[in-house]
Specification:
single chain; alpha+beta; Enolase-like, domain 1; 2 domains; about 40% helix; globular; DUF1071 domain-containing protein
Length: about 260
């Protein structure tokens, strides 16, 4: 059994900001809504395809009438994961939604209720392995991560990237920021910049998601090569390249490779 008990947790604790949506109303106003499809992607990233590296089952579903006439529905799920080749014990989650809701003063049936309840239950269960943990820990302020866990509940100002991502000067500054872990090994830390490699990593992710300069992606990939952040940085670079329509090394290889001819 590995001694790095937080490896999986750290791999899935941060939700990319494009999969987070600020809740604008209700008792959760101001909180962040996490895209449920990303949760499934995070589990697949950590354990493998569903049914092979992880699986779940619906333990039970039930409904309860509310005093206002609406009907709540609930689901309990049990999740099991495979770790280092062995299946672990099940861990569970309970979620809820409505199958009869009040809309404009009238009762309205919903055929999405139980599906939403199961989705909610899975999200609750996934918390146990760290999926989106930083959001639940309060380490996300609605626009950016606060980087270190120790800073999650402090009001200190966190260093951020320049907003003018389109300028050449800003892109050069981003490259310098991502290279600072190496510089810090050879020069004394300055009072104005005491960031850890974790903080530099998060700054790099923010820069990658907003950059309009391909050189930023190359610098990020080079800076974090051989570190524990390499896979996440490479995935973020590929996603940004796809979004901007920039060719990647993989697509260039596919274009240069000879097409297979089918023989009948």
């Amino acid at each position: 059994m590995t001694t790095n008990n937080l490896k999986i947790w750290n791999d899935v604790k941060q939700t990319p900001s494009n999969f987070l949506k600020k809740i604008e109303f209700g008792y959760l106003k101001g909180k962040s809504d996490i895209n449920p499809q990303w949760r499934l992607m995070a589990m697949t990233q950590a354990f493998g395809p569903v049914g092979h590296g992880w699986t779940y089952r619906i333990v039970r579903t039930w409904s309860e009438a509310a005093p206002n006439g609406s009907i709540m529905c609930f689901a309990e799920v049990a999740v099991k994961t495979k770790f280092e080749g062995a299946w672990g014990e099940e861990f569970s989650g309970i979620g809820g939604s409505e199958i009869v809701e009040i809309a404009k003063g009238q009762l309205k049936a919903s055929d999405e209720g139980y599906k939403k309840a199961v989705t909610d239950a899975l999200g609750v269960a996934f918390k146990a392995v760290g999926v989106a943990a930083d959001v639940y820990l309060g380490n996300y302020d609605g626009s950016k991560y606060l980087y270190e866990y120790d800073h999650a509940y402090q009001a200190d100002k966190i260093l951020t990237q320049s907003q003018n991502q389109g300028s050449h000067q800003s892109n050069q500054q981003q490259n310098q920021n991502m290279q600072q872990p190496v510089q810090q090994q050879t020069t004394p830390l300055k009072p104005k910049d005491t960031r850890t490699q974790q903080q530099i990593y998060n700054s790099a992710l923010a820069a990658i998601q907003k950059t309009e300069d391909k050189s930023v992606l190359l610098t990020a990939a080079k800076t974090f090569k051989g570190t524990k952040y390499e896979t996440h940085i490479n995935n973020a670079c590929r996603a940004r390249a796809d979004q901007m329509g920039w060719p990647t090394k993989q697509t260039q290889q596919n274009q240069n490779s000879p097409q297979q001819v089918m023989h009948h």
